[in-house]
Model the fold of this input.
Amino acid sequence: MNELLFETIENAGNAIKNKQISPIELTQMTLTQIREHEPTVNAFITVMEEVALAHARQLEAELMHNQVRGPLHGIPIAVKDILQTAGVKTTGGSKIFEGWVPDEDAVAVQKLREAGAIIIGKANLHEFAMGATTENPHYGSTKNPWNEKRIPGGSSGGSAVATATGMAFGAVGTDTAGSMRLPAAMCGTVGFKPTYGVVSRRGCLPFSWSLDHVGPMTRTVRDAAIMLEVMKGYDQKDQASVKRNVPVLYDSLPDLKGIKLGFYEPYMFAGIDADVRRVIDEAFRQLEVLGAEIVPIDLPGINEALNALKAIAQSEVLSVHEPLLKKFGHLYGDDLKYRFEFGSDMSATDYIRSQRRRDQFVRETIKQMNGIDALVGPTNVQPPFEIGTMVPEMAISNMFTLGKTPLANILGFPSLSVACGFTLENLPVGLQLIGKPFTDQRVLQIGDCYEKSMPWVKALRKHMEGRTI
Done:
């Protein structure tokens, strides 16, 4: 039965629907998995055992009356502890909020609950989502399940680890410069950042309101689509929310014939580790075997745009945290204090100029992607390093030295990370796809086709099922 913990959401949901297993049994199995592995990997800040079992009993009763809410009915899901959960503390990974208990769910969490998902716990994260390592000075560092001495990536590190280790079938994460996709790549899972505005951020503690995204983290692309289908939708109380109905669920592609993928080597391969490069080259060859055409593309102004992202993010995060800093500055971790110092050097002129550069870059990139289905490249260009080896002063550049994820945030375009192989040290590597605005479904289709053609899902599952930690 333990093998079921590593099944897809789709298969586990069918098992519940067909009454092969009950929501209560699946929740109890998941909690047992957490009790066994959580002391080693530290994926959670709060495990919601009583709340989860109470919801499971409700869903069990509905099932007995042949009421099934959908594919997520009875499926245990983790939530990054930066999204509000009604009646359960939401810390943001900070000591400042260690006792805060919200009275309502974040919109994305509410939608998942209504769809029958069981919130199993609040996942650990880099403090206030402001880092790429999930080394949390207050709640402990989350460990990479492939090598517990290594970082899992961040800031949604706990969400990725919970999903990879069978302690959840999926998780909700946030992504400001790669915070879902980078840990997904480093833990061998899937992370999908939807088009900006497709999923409401209401109820999520903000980092940078013009860059923040909420999205699913799962073990397969299909599962990410299942979660996103529930999470998406217009929210009039989120100013960034779009009214447009964006298709998500898809019919699988038999191959990638006719798909054109743009590749900008000067950016995508800059700073890449030789072993990671080997893995990505193999992934590119497989995409071509499937029929995709990988063509060179230019992204003029990319360096200026990425510098603009830094300025925007640090200006906005300082604005968010300024009131808290005055009262609780001594409670912040050292690497965050360094980030705030950087943000304080930004003037209003710098911020406005950066937003203009961003707008110009978005318009130019859309032109460059004419006839292109998606951009392709590595998610992470460096393997995860050992915990405790990155000094706080380097924290501000982690996203830019570990991976190529910030590009999709400054653009606001949909972006997927899917497992594509392993380094010689048996550490996962992620392949990244970035689509045009509102082509979320197409990006998922391409990633799904690639994923199904390779043995990574089975390899990942086999490793996690048989590992001893």
